[in-house]
Amino acid sequence: MAKAVKRPPRVQLAPGLDAPRILTGLWQVADMERGGRRLNPRRGAEALRAYAEAGFDAFDMADHYGSAEIIAGRYLASPGARGKAFTKWCPAPGPMTREAVRAGVGRSLKRLGVRRIDLLQFHWWRYRDLRYLDAMAELARLREEGVIGHLGLTNFDTDHLRLLVRHGVPIATNQVSFSLLDRRAAGRMSEFCRASGVRLLAYGALAGGFLSERWLGKPEPRQIPDWSKSKYKRFIDAAGGWKVLQGILAAAAKVARKHRVSVSNVAVRWVLEHKAVGAVIVGARLGESEHRDGNLKVFGFSLDASDKEILAKALSKAKDLPGDCGDEYRKPPFLTASGDLSHHLVPEAPPAGWPRRARFDSGTKWEPLAGYARAVRAGNRILVSGTTATHGAGTIVCPGDAEGQTVYTLDKIGAAIEALGGRMEQVVRTRVYLKDAAKWEPVARAHGRVFGDIRPVNTMLEVSNFIGDYEVEIEAEAELV
Protein backbone atom coordinates (compact mmCIF):
# COMPACT_ATOMS: atom_id res chain seq x y z
CA MET A 1 0.00 0.00 0.00
CA ALA A 2 1.30 3.45 -0.89
CA LYS A 3 2.21 5.73 1.99
CA ALA A 4 1.00 9.31 2.24
CA VAL A 5 3.40 11.93 0.89
CA LYS A 6 2.78 15.62 1.56
CA ARG A 7 5.21 17.19 -0.91
CA PRO A 8 7.08 15.87 -3.94
CA PRO A 9 10.77 15.06 -3.51
CA ARG A 10 13.21 17.32 -5.32
CA VAL A 11 16.15 16.69 -7.60
CA GLN A 12 19.19 18.72 -8.55
CA LEU A 13 19.10 18.78 -12.34
CA ALA A 14 22.34 20.77 -12.46
CA PRO A 15 24.36 22.81 -9.96
CA GLY A 16 22.00 25.52 -8.74
CA LEU A 17 18.96 24.09 -10.52
CA ASP A 18 16.67 22.07 -8.30
CA ALA A 19 13.09 21.05 -9.10
CA PRO A 20 10.37 18.67 -7.98
CA ARG A 21 10.60 15.26 -9.61
CA ILE A 22 7.28 15.96 -11.33
CA LEU A 23 7.20 19.14 -13.39
CA THR A 24 3.94 20.82 -14.34
CA GLY A 25 3.63 20.85 -18.12
CA LEU A 26 1.72 23.62 -19.85
CA TRP A 27 1.58 22.25 -23.41
CA GLN A 28 -2.17 21.74 -23.12
CA VAL A 29 -2.64 25.51 -23.04
CA ALA A 30 -2.11 25.43 -26.82
CA ASP A 31 -4.82 22.81 -27.24
CA MET A 32 -7.22 24.66 -24.92
CA GLU A 33 -6.73 27.83 -26.98
CA ARG A 34 -7.46 26.29 -30.36
CA GLY A 35 -9.86 28.28 -32.49
CA GLY A 36 -8.74 31.67 -31.23
CA ARG A 37 -9.77 31.22 -27.60
CA ARG A 38 -7.48 32.70 -24.94
CA LEU A 39 -7.32 31.56 -21.33
CA ASN A 40 -7.77 34.16 -18.64
CA PRO A 41 -4.21 34.95 -17.41
CA ARG A 42 -5.38 35.75 -13.86
CA ARG A 43 -7.24 32.47 -13.47
CA GLY A 44 -4.37 30.58 -15.06
CA ALA A 45 -1.95 32.20 -12.61
CA GLU A 46 -4.19 31.16 -9.70
CA ALA A 47 -4.04 27.56 -10.92
CA LEU A 48 -0.22 27.73 -11.08
CA ARG A 49 -0.13 29.11 -7.54
CA ALA A 50 -2.05 26.08 -6.29
CA TYR A 51 0.52 23.79 -7.92
CA ALA A 52 3.45 25.77 -6.51
CA GLU A 53 2.02 25.77 -2.98
CA ALA A 54 1.72 21.98 -3.19
CA GLY A 55 5.44 21.75 -4.06
CA PHE A 56 5.04 21.43 -7.85
CA ASP A 57 6.74 24.76 -8.47
CA ALA A 58 8.60 24.18 -11.76
CA PHE A 59 6.57 24.93 -14.89
CA ASP A 60 7.52 23.61 -18.31
CA MET A 61 6.34 25.59 -21.34
CA ALA A 62 7.45 26.85 -24.75
CA ASP A 63 7.27 29.90 -26.96
CA HIS A 64 4.55 28.20 -29.04
CA TYR A 65 2.35 26.80 -26.24
CA GLY A 66 -0.31 29.46 -26.73
CA SER A 67 -0.27 31.97 -23.87
CA ALA A 68 1.54 29.63 -21.45
CA GLU A 69 4.48 32.01 -20.96
CA ILE A 70 2.11 34.93 -20.34
CA ILE A 71 0.18 32.94 -17.72
CA ALA A 72 3.39 31.84 -16.02
CA GLY A 73 4.64 35.43 -16.08
CA ARG A 74 1.43 36.60 -14.47
CA TYR A 75 1.96 34.12 -11.65
CA LEU A 76 5.67 34.89 -11.20
CA ALA A 77 4.86 38.61 -10.88
CA SER A 78 2.25 38.02 -8.17
CA PRO A 79 3.00 38.59 -4.45
CA GLY A 80 4.74 35.66 -2.77
CA ALA A 81 5.19 33.74 -6.02
CA ARG A 82 7.63 30.85 -5.84
CA GLY A 83 8.46 28.99 -9.01
CA LYS A 84 10.87 28.20 -11.80
CA ALA A 85 10.27 28.86 -15.47
CA PHE A 86 11.46 26.15 -17.85
CA THR A 87 10.69 27.27 -21.38
CA LYS A 88 11.67 26.30 -24.90
CA TRP A 89 12.84 28.25 -27.88
CA CYS A 90 11.79 26.54 -31.11
CA PRO A 91 12.90 28.91 -33.89
CA ALA A 92 11.88 28.62 -37.52
CA PRO A 93 14.79 27.81 -39.86
CA GLY A 94 16.95 30.78 -40.70
CA PRO A 95 20.28 32.43 -39.92
CA MET A 96 21.07 32.06 -36.23
CA THR A 97 22.72 35.44 -35.88
CA ARG A 98 23.41 37.15 -32.57
CA GLU A 99 20.40 39.39 -33.19
CA ALA A 100 18.04 36.52 -34.10
CA VAL A 101 18.94 34.44 -31.05
CA ARG A 102 18.70 37.33 -28.64
CA ALA A 103 15.37 38.41 -30.11
CA GLY A 104 13.97 34.91 -29.66
CA VAL A 105 15.08 34.68 -26.05
CA GLY A 106 13.99 38.27 -25.48
CA ARG A 107 10.41 37.43 -26.46
CA SER A 108 10.25 34.77 -23.77
CA LEU A 109 11.85 37.08 -21.20
CA LYS A 110 9.23 39.73 -21.95
CA ARG A 111 6.29 37.32 -21.81
CA LEU A 112 7.55 35.78 -18.58
CA GLY A 113 8.37 39.18 -17.11
CA VAL A 114 11.73 37.96 -15.77
CA ARG A 115 15.36 38.96 -16.18
CA ARG A 116 16.62 35.39 -16.15
CA ILE A 117 15.16 32.17 -17.55
CA ASP A 118 15.87 29.29 -15.19
CA LEU A 119 16.13 26.68 -17.97
CA LEU A 120 16.06 27.52 -21.67
CA GLN A 121 15.50 24.40 -23.79
CA PHE A 122 16.39 24.53 -27.47
CA HIS A 123 14.65 22.60 -30.25
CA TRP A 124 15.95 22.29 -33.81
CA TRP A 125 14.08 20.89 -36.77
CA ARG A 126 16.69 19.63 -39.26
CA TYR A 127 20.16 18.47 -38.22
CA ARG A 128 21.44 19.02 -41.76
CA ASP A 129 20.72 22.69 -41.22
CA LEU A 130 23.96 23.17 -39.34
CA ARG A 131 23.07 26.62 -38.05
CA TYR A 132 21.93 25.08 -34.76
CA LEU A 133 25.58 25.28 -33.67
CA ASP A 134 25.49 29.05 -34.17
CA ALA A 135 22.34 29.23 -32.05
CA MET A 136 23.87 27.14 -29.27
CA ALA A 137 27.04 29.24 -29.24
CA GLU A 138 24.99 32.42 -28.74
CA LEU A 139 22.77 30.78 -26.12
CA ALA A 140 25.92 29.75 -24.25
CA ARG A 141 27.01 33.40 -24.27
CA LEU A 142 23.63 34.43 -22.86
CA ARG A 143 24.14 31.86 -20.12
CA GLU A 144 27.53 33.37 -19.30
CA GLU A 145 25.87 36.79 -19.12
CA GLY A 146 23.29 35.49 -16.65
CA VAL A 147 20.28 35.94 -18.93
CA ILE A 148 19.84 32.16 -18.98
CA GLY A 149 20.43 30.06 -15.88
CA HIS A 150 20.91 26.70 -17.59
CA LEU A 151 20.73 25.33 -21.12
CA GLY A 152 18.70 22.31 -22.13
CA LEU A 153 17.60 20.61 -25.32
CA THR A 154 14.29 19.19 -26.37
CA ASN A 155 13.80 16.20 -28.67
CA PHE A 156 17.48 15.88 -29.59
CA ASP A 157 18.61 12.40 -30.54
CA THR A 158 21.61 10.76 -28.91
CA ASP A 159 24.09 11.54 -31.68
CA HIS A 160 23.38 15.27 -31.69
CA LEU A 161 23.09 15.58 -27.91
CA ARG A 162 26.47 13.89 -27.69
CA LEU A 163 27.90 16.14 -30.40
CA LEU A 164 26.95 19.31 -28.52
CA VAL A 165 28.26 18.01 -25.19
CA ARG A 166 31.55 16.90 -26.76
CA HIS A 167 31.78 20.27 -28.52
CA GLY A 168 31.77 21.93 -25.11
CA VAL A 169 28.23 23.32 -24.92
CA PRO A 170 27.05 23.20 -21.26
CA ILE A 171 23.89 21.09 -21.62
CA ALA A 172 22.02 20.34 -18.38
CA THR A 173 18.95 18.50 -19.68
CA ASN A 174 17.35 16.89 -22.71
CA GLN A 175 13.55 16.68 -22.81
CA VAL A 176 12.29 13.57 -24.60
CA SER A 177 9.28 11.29 -24.82
CA PHE A 178 9.62 8.34 -22.41
CA SER A 179 6.88 5.93 -21.36
CA LEU A 180 5.81 2.31 -21.15
CA LEU A 181 4.87 2.70 -24.82
CA ASP A 182 7.92 4.71 -25.92
CA ARG A 183 11.10 3.24 -24.52
CA ARG A 184 13.59 4.71 -27.00
CA ALA A 185 15.27 6.79 -24.28
CA ALA A 186 15.99 3.72 -22.14
CA GLY A 187 18.91 2.57 -24.29
CA ARG A 188 21.78 4.53 -25.80
CA MET A 189 20.29 7.88 -24.74
CA SER A 190 20.20 6.91 -21.07
CA GLU A 191 23.68 5.41 -21.26
CA PHE A 192 25.13 8.64 -22.58
CA CYS A 193 23.22 10.83 -20.14
CA ARG A 194 24.37 8.79 -17.15
CA ALA A 195 27.98 8.99 -18.35
CA SER A 196 27.89 12.73 -19.10
CA GLY A 197 25.68 14.04 -16.29
CA VAL A 198 22.88 15.26 -18.57
CA ARG A 199 19.47 14.67 -16.96
CA LEU A 200 16.43 13.58 -18.94
CA LEU A 201 13.14 15.43 -18.55
CA ALA A 202 10.55 12.87 -19.61
CA TYR A 203 7.27 13.89 -21.17
CA GLY A 204 4.54 11.64 -22.55
CA ALA A 205 4.74 9.29 -19.55
CA LEU A 206 0.94 9.00 -19.68
CA ALA A 207 0.84 8.86 -23.51
CA GLY A 208 -1.64 11.71 -23.72
CA GLY A 209 -3.86 10.01 -21.13
CA PHE A 210 -3.98 6.59 -22.82
CA LEU A 211 -1.97 5.08 -19.95
CA SER A 212 -4.79 5.40 -17.45
CA GLU A 213 -7.83 3.48 -16.12
CA ARG A 214 -10.02 5.45 -18.49
CA TRP A 215 -8.91 3.31 -21.44
CA LEU A 216 -8.62 -0.08 -19.72
CA GLY A 217 -11.03 -2.51 -21.38
CA LYS A 218 -12.38 0.19 -23.68
CA PRO A 219 -12.80 -0.13 -27.47
CA GLU A 220 -10.33 1.58 -29.79
CA PRO A 221 -11.44 5.18 -30.43
CA ARG A 222 -12.51 6.09 -33.94
CA GLN A 223 -11.84 9.80 -33.55
CA ILE A 224 -9.08 11.51 -31.59
CA PRO A 225 -10.14 14.73 -29.84
CA ASP A 226 -6.86 16.60 -29.56
CA TRP A 227 -3.35 16.96 -31.02
CA SER A 228 -1.66 15.28 -28.09
CA LYS A 229 -3.78 12.14 -28.23
CA SER A 230 -3.38 12.00 -32.02
CA LYS A 231 0.38 11.84 -31.56
CA TYR A 232 0.27 9.11 -28.92
CA LYS A 233 -2.31 7.05 -30.81
CA ARG A 234 0.31 6.72 -33.55
CA PHE A 235 2.76 5.48 -30.90
CA ILE A 236 0.20 2.86 -29.87
CA ASP A 237 -0.19 1.74 -33.48
CA ALA A 238 3.58 1.54 -33.95
CA ALA A 239 3.99 -0.46 -30.73
CA GLY A 240 1.59 -3.15 -31.95
CA GLY A 241 -1.88 -1.69 -31.73
CA TRP A 242 -4.79 -1.48 -29.32
CA LYS A 243 -4.46 -5.08 -28.11
CA VAL A 244 -0.88 -4.43 -27.00
CA LEU A 245 -1.98 -1.28 -25.16
CA GLN A 246 -4.68 -3.25 -23.36
CA GLY A 247 -2.07 -5.78 -22.25
CA ILE A 248 0.12 -3.03 -20.84
CA LEU A 249 -2.84 -1.40 -19.11
CA ALA A 250 -3.91 -4.72 -17.57
CA ALA A 251 -0.39 -5.30 -16.23
CA ALA A 252 -0.19 -1.76 -14.84
CA ALA A 253 -3.62 -2.18 -13.27
CA LYS A 254 -2.48 -5.35 -11.48
CA VAL A 255 0.51 -3.48 -10.03
CA ALA A 256 -1.70 -0.50 -9.17
CA ARG A 257 -4.17 -2.65 -7.20
CA LYS A 258 -1.30 -4.09 -5.16
CA HIS A 259 -0.09 -0.62 -4.13
CA ARG A 260 -3.57 0.99 -4.05
CA VAL A 261 -2.61 3.62 -6.57
CA SER A 262 -3.74 4.43 -10.11
CA VAL A 263 -2.55 3.04 -13.44
CA SER A 264 -1.24 6.53 -14.20
CA ASN A 265 0.80 6.48 -10.98
CA VAL A 266 2.38 3.19 -12.03
CA ALA A 267 3.16 4.54 -15.51
CA VAL A 268 4.87 7.65 -14.11
CA ARG A 269 6.72 5.68 -11.41
CA TRP A 270 8.11 3.29 -14.06
CA VAL A 271 9.70 6.23 -15.90
CA LEU A 272 10.94 7.95 -12.74
CA GLU A 273 12.85 4.85 -11.65
CA HIS A 274 15.15 5.03 -14.69
CA LYS A 275 18.38 6.48 -13.35
CA ALA A 276 18.97 8.92 -16.21
CA VAL A 277 15.58 10.57 -15.63
CA GLY A 278 15.70 13.71 -13.52
CA ALA A 279 11.98 14.51 -13.62
CA VAL A 280 8.76 13.56 -15.36
CA ILE A 281 6.53 16.26 -16.87
CA VAL A 282 2.81 15.77 -16.24
CA GLY A 283 0.49 18.09 -18.13
CA ALA A 284 -2.11 20.34 -16.51
CA ARG A 285 -5.34 21.62 -18.03
CA LEU A 286 -5.50 24.90 -16.15
CA GLY A 287 -8.88 25.63 -14.67
CA GLU A 288 -10.39 22.37 -15.89
CA SER A 289 -8.75 19.62 -13.84
CA GLU A 290 -5.90 19.24 -11.39
CA HIS A 291 -3.80 16.21 -10.51
CA ARG A 292 -1.72 17.43 -7.57
CA ASP A 293 -2.97 14.86 -5.05
CA GLY A 294 -2.72 12.09 -7.63
CA ASN A 295 0.81 13.11 -8.55
CA LEU A 296 1.88 12.93 -4.90
CA LYS A 297 0.88 9.26 -4.77
CA VAL A 298 3.67 8.50 -7.26
CA PHE A 299 6.16 9.05 -4.44
CA GLY A 300 4.42 6.83 -1.89
CA PHE A 301 5.51 3.51 -3.40
CA SER A 302 8.27 1.85 -5.43
CA LEU A 303 8.19 -0.90 -8.02
CA ASP A 304 9.61 -4.13 -6.65
CA ALA A 305 11.03 -7.04 -8.62
CA SER A 306 7.66 -8.74 -9.07
CA ASP A 307 6.06 -5.48 -10.28
CA LYS A 308 8.80 -5.02 -12.84
CA GLU A 309 8.44 -8.60 -14.00
CA ILE A 310 4.68 -8.15 -14.55
CA LEU A 311 5.26 -5.00 -16.59
CA ALA A 312 8.19 -6.50 -18.51
CA LYS A 313 6.05 -9.47 -19.58
CA ALA A 314 3.43 -7.13 -21.07
CA LEU A 315 6.11 -4.95 -22.68
CA SER A 316 7.69 -8.01 -24.32
CA LYS A 317 4.63 -8.18 -26.58
CA ALA A 318 5.09 -4.57 -27.71
CA LYS A 319 7.30 -3.51 -30.58
CA ASP A 320 10.05 -1.00 -29.93
CA LEU A 321 9.32 2.32 -31.59
CA PRO A 322 11.74 2.81 -34.48
CA GLY A 323 14.51 5.37 -34.47
CA ASP A 324 15.92 7.59 -31.77
CA CYS A 325 14.36 10.21 -29.53
CA GLY A 326 12.67 13.07 -31.37
CA ASP A 327 12.49 11.34 -34.75
CA GLU A 328 8.73 11.92 -34.89
CA TYR A 329 9.37 15.67 -35.13
CA ARG A 330 11.58 15.26 -38.19
CA LYS A 331 9.57 12.75 -40.23
CA PRO A 332 6.00 12.76 -41.60
CA PRO A 333 3.40 13.56 -40.36
CA PHE A 334 5.30 15.92 -38.01
CA LEU A 335 2.36 16.24 -35.59
CA THR A 336 3.35 17.64 -32.20
CA ALA A 337 1.40 18.44 -29.04
CA SER A 338 0.92 21.91 -30.53
CA GLY A 339 -0.32 20.80 -33.92
CA ASP A 340 1.22 20.15 -37.32
CA LEU A 341 4.47 22.12 -37.47
CA SER A 342 5.78 20.49 -40.65
CA HIS A 343 6.32 23.87 -42.29
CA HIS A 344 9.48 24.13 -40.19
CA LEU A 345 10.96 21.21 -42.11
CA VAL A 346 10.34 22.38 -45.65
CA PRO A 347 13.79 22.84 -47.25
CA GLU A 348 14.50 25.68 -49.61
CA ALA A 349 13.05 24.95 -53.04
CA PRO A 350 15.65 23.67 -55.53
CA PRO A 351 15.92 25.24 -58.97
CA ALA A 352 13.28 24.22 -61.51
CA GLY A 353 15.95 22.79 -63.78
CA TRP A 354 19.60 21.91 -63.31
CA PRO A 355 22.44 22.93 -65.61
CA ARG A 356 24.76 20.23 -66.85
CA ARG A 357 27.17 21.20 -64.08
CA ALA A 358 26.38 22.87 -60.74
CA ARG A 359 28.32 23.31 -57.54
CA PHE A 360 27.62 23.87 -53.87
CA ASP A 361 29.89 25.63 -51.37
CA SER A 362 29.44 25.22 -47.61
CA GLY A 363 31.21 28.47 -46.67
CA THR A 364 34.51 27.26 -45.27
CA LYS A 365 37.49 29.50 -45.96
CA TRP A 366 39.35 26.70 -47.76
CA GLU A 367 36.91 26.21 -50.64
CA PRO A 368 37.73 29.42 -52.54
CA LEU A 369 41.30 29.46 -51.23
CA ALA A 370 42.18 25.99 -52.51
CA GLY A 371 39.89 26.19 -55.53
CA TYR A 372 37.42 23.38 -54.92
CA ALA A 373 33.68 22.96 -54.29
CA ARG A 374 32.08 21.16 -51.39
CA ALA A 375 30.02 19.25 -53.93
CA VAL A 376 29.49 19.18 -57.69
CA ARG A 377 26.49 17.95 -59.61
CA ALA A 378 27.48 16.65 -63.04
CA GLY A 379 24.44 15.36 -64.89
CA ASN A 380 22.83 12.78 -62.63
CA ARG A 381 25.83 12.40 -60.36
CA ILE A 382 26.67 14.33 -57.21
CA LEU A 383 30.23 14.11 -55.93
CA VAL A 384 31.07 15.45 -52.47
CA SER A 385 34.63 16.48 -51.66
CA GLY A 386 36.50 15.09 -48.69
CA THR A 387 34.54 16.74 -45.86
CA THR A 388 35.63 17.45 -42.32
CA ALA A 389 33.89 18.76 -39.21
CA THR A 390 34.60 22.40 -40.02
CA HIS A 391 31.74 24.70 -39.07
CA GLY A 392 31.42 28.09 -40.71
CA ALA A 393 34.64 29.87 -41.51
CA GLY A 394 36.90 27.60 -39.49
CA THR A 395 35.50 26.27 -36.20
CA ILE A 396 36.43 22.61 -35.65
CA VAL A 397 33.51 20.67 -34.19
CA CYS A 398 34.23 18.18 -31.39
CA PRO A 399 38.05 18.45 -31.38
CA GLY A 400 39.60 15.06 -30.67
CA ASP A 401 36.28 13.21 -30.88
CA ALA A 402 36.06 11.01 -33.98
CA GLU A 403 32.46 9.92 -33.43
CA GLY A 404 31.13 13.46 -32.98
CA GLN A 405 33.07 14.66 -36.02
CA THR A 406 31.57 11.81 -38.08
CA VAL A 407 28.01 12.78 -37.08
CA TYR A 408 28.60 16.41 -38.02
CA THR A 409 30.43 15.55 -41.25
CA LEU A 410 27.65 13.27 -42.48
CA ASP A 411 25.09 15.99 -41.75
CA LYS A 412 27.24 18.38 -43.75
CA ILE A 413 27.45 15.92 -46.64
CA GLY A 414 23.68 15.43 -46.51
CA ALA A 415 23.14 19.18 -46.68
CA ALA A 416 25.39 19.45 -49.75
CA ILE A 417 23.61 16.60 -51.55
CA GLU A 418 20.17 18.06 -50.77
CA ALA A 419 21.28 21.51 -51.96
CA LEU A 420 22.04 19.97 -55.37
CA GLY A 421 18.68 18.23 -55.61
CA GLY A 422 19.65 14.80 -54.26
CA ARG A 423 18.92 12.69 -51.19
CA MET A 424 21.14 10.68 -48.89
CA GLU A 425 19.20 7.59 -49.99
CA GLN A 426 20.85 8.04 -53.41
CA VAL A 427 24.42 7.76 -52.08
CA VAL A 428 26.21 4.84 -53.73
CA ARG A 429 29.76 5.25 -52.35
CA THR A 430 31.48 6.67 -49.29
CA ARG A 431 35.13 6.84 -48.37
CA VAL A 432 36.21 7.39 -44.77
CA TYR A 433 39.72 8.53 -43.86
CA LEU A 434 40.83 8.17 -40.23
CA LYS A 435 43.71 9.74 -38.38
CA ASP A 436 43.76 6.80 -35.96
CA ALA A 437 42.53 3.38 -37.11
CA ALA A 438 41.93 2.41 -33.47
CA LYS A 439 38.87 4.71 -33.55
CA TRP A 440 37.26 2.87 -36.45
CA GLU A 441 34.36 1.33 -34.53
CA PRO A 442 32.55 4.46 -33.22
CA VAL A 443 33.05 6.04 -36.65
CA ALA A 444 31.68 2.95 -38.38
CA ARG A 445 28.68 2.85 -36.05
CA ALA A 446 27.89 6.54 -36.71
CA HIS A 447 28.17 5.82 -40.45
CA GLY A 448 25.82 2.86 -39.97
CA ARG A 449 23.17 4.93 -38.20
CA VAL A 450 22.91 7.07 -41.33
CA PHE A 451 23.46 4.45 -44.04
CA GLY A 452 22.22 1.24 -42.41
CA ASP A 453 19.24 0.98 -44.76
CA ILE A 454 20.98 2.58 -47.76
CA ARG A 455 24.11 0.43 -47.77
CA PRO A 456 26.45 2.24 -50.21
CA VAL A 457 29.82 0.72 -51.00
CA ASN A 458 32.41 1.97 -48.54
CA THR A 459 36.14 2.18 -47.99
CA MET A 460 37.77 3.07 -44.66
CA LEU A 461 41.46 3.95 -44.44
CA GLU A 462 43.94 5.25 -41.91
CA VAL A 463 45.85 8.22 -43.30
CA SER A 464 49.16 9.34 -41.85
CA ASN A 465 50.00 13.05 -41.45
CA PHE A 466 46.32 14.03 -41.51
CA ILE A 467 45.91 17.66 -42.60
CA GLY A 468 44.52 19.85 -39.85
CA ASP A 469 43.28 19.08 -36.35
CA TYR A 470 40.71 16.53 -37.49
CA GLU A 471 39.99 12.92 -36.66
CA VAL A 472 38.03 11.93 -39.76
CA GLU A 473 37.37 13.04 -43.34
CA ILE A 474 34.60 11.61 -45.53
CA GLU A 475 33.69 11.87 -49.21
CA ALA A 476 30.57 10.60 -50.95
CA GLU A 477 29.03 10.01 -54.37
CA ALA A 478 25.33 9.88 -55.23
CA GLU A 479 23.50 8.73 -58.37
CA LEU A 480 20.22 10.54 -59.09
CA VAL A 481 18.37 7.74 -60.87
- Would you identify the CATH architecture of the largest domain? Alpha-Beta Barrel
Low-confidence stretches: none
- Tally of domains: 2
For the residues shown, what is the average pLDDT?
93
Task: Provide a descriptive summary of the structure in words.
This protein folds into two domains: 10-343, TIM Barrel (Alpha-Beta Barrel), CATH 3.20.20; 357-479, 60s Ribosomal Protein L30, Chain: A (2-Layer Sandwich), CATH 3.30.1330. 35% of the residues lie in helices and 21% in strands. The strands form five sheets. The protein has an eight-stranded parallel β-barrel with strand order 3-4-5-6-7-8-9-10, surrounded by seven helices. By secondary structure, the chain is α/β, with parallel strands linked by helices.
Essential attributes:
60s Ribosomal Protein L30, Chain: A, six-stranded mixed sheet, TIM Barrel
Structure, briefly:
The protein has 481 residues and is an alpha/beta fold.
Sequence-ordered SSE layout with sheet pairings:
Layout: E1 10-14, E2 17-20, E3 22-25, H1 28-32, H2 41-53, E4 58-60, H3 68-76, E5 84-89, H4 98-112, E6 117-122, H5 132-145, E7 148-154, H6 158-166, E8 171-177, H7 188-196, E9 199-203, H8 227-239, H9 242-259, H10 263-272, E10 277-283, H11 292-296, H12 305-315, E11 335-336, E12 339-340, E13 357-360, H13 366-370, E14 375-378, E15 381-387, E16 390-391, E17 395-396, H14 402-419, E18 427-434, H15 440-451, E19 457-462, E20 472-479
Parallel strand pairs: 3-4, 3-10, 4-5, 5-6, 6-7, 7-8, 8-9, 9-10, 18-19
Antiparallel strand pairs: 1-2, 11-12, 13-14, 14-15, 15-20, 16-17, 18-20
